[in-house]
User: What shape does this take?
Amino acid sequence: MKSIYHNDFNNQKVLIRVDFNVPLNEKKEVTDNSRIIAAQKTIQKILNDGGIPILMSHLGRPKGEDPNLSLAHIVPEVEKILKVNVVFTHQVIGNKTTEAVNTSKPNQVILLENLRYYKEEKNGDENFAKALSKLGDSYVNDAFGTAHRAHASTAVIAKFFPNNKFAGDLLLKEVESIKKVMNSGEKPILGILGGAKVSSKITIIENIINKVDKLIIGGGMAFTFIKAQGGEIGDSICEDDKMPLALSILKSAKKNKVEILLPLDVVCADSFSNNANKKVCPIDKIPKGWEGMDAGPESLNIFEKAIISSKTILWNGPVGVFEIESFSKGTISVGEYVSKSTKNGSFSLVGGGDSVAAVKQFSFQEKVSYVSTGGGAMLESLEGKILPGIKALY
Ligand code: AMP
Assistant: This one.
């Protein structure tokens, strides 16, 4: 896979697939610009080389042409962040776009209309990809968040640039951080898996079980493991049909000499609310009418020791119902331990799903090594899948 840093884009028109799928408010203003900021380095590199970036993205899930989901809404924000003039084409392909591209000047950025106005984008239509490819001299993919989709602009288009396809700065960072954990992580390597359900994390567990030295299993998914071993879990969330699987995961961990750390105690509640009565129970002795909502003090103690003594950390999923303040302490504490371990020199990747939301909510982004920008794409990478958008760049 060639990186943008291995090429000079001077005088080139460069098609860049970015992920500008940003949230908009009722006034159609961008409420979170982090995805635009994340693409800045790649766009800037092309501009600095003297190339003209042609940005392509989707926004939301339009059914045909939906003015509410026009990328025109984000032009002011893109201009503000990039500090350059953005030419918006009001269409994806067609005369207006071709003209805008042909008359573009250095230090200008072209932004195409929402790719998903065309069903051909999601269908991975080759003719659509070919028509897009005609706009540029080279192709860059910097949309890690959609790299798990085999869409026209994320995967199919690459074949029209056999020698001129490149990975953007953000995509490279994501791929590198996954590699650092999965292939070249310094030992001991720790996985922290949390979240609601075992079923949504099975493939990840199966993929990382022979890569990590230790694995914390926290959050709602821990109860399936506890009940499977004969524990009393009260009204805690549990997937009974996954209990045999939980036992086989424990067996396979033993075989692979992976230490599994399940919570020892939990903060229980008598209802799923911030005002519920609370008490700390051993995780295998939760009375009926009570449910485990957050990691207890003894659990946090063993989690802290494991996190601080690890050199590589992968964190996916909160260890409690962090959205409810009364049950957020466990997840905040894990964030603190991961931050401390990172400060001491370990590499920490937070990726996929709600742990990213938690890390942002409690302001740990700057204190961990890398926070992934791609929810589904990161999950699929952790599951060991080769993403079509990345495969297409080889
Ligand atoms: P996931 O998307 O799989 O990472 O799951 C995240 C969700 O798991 C969050 O909404 C948490 O509130 C939830 N969760 C974490 N711990 C528990 C628990 N003990 N009981 C119920 N839900 C939980």
Observations:
- The CA atoms of residues 207 and 383 lie 6 Å apart.
- Residues 194-197, 200, 219-220, 237, 292-293, 317-318, 320-321, 323, 353-354 surround adenosine monophosphate (CB under 6 Å).
- The chain has 15 helices and 17 strands.
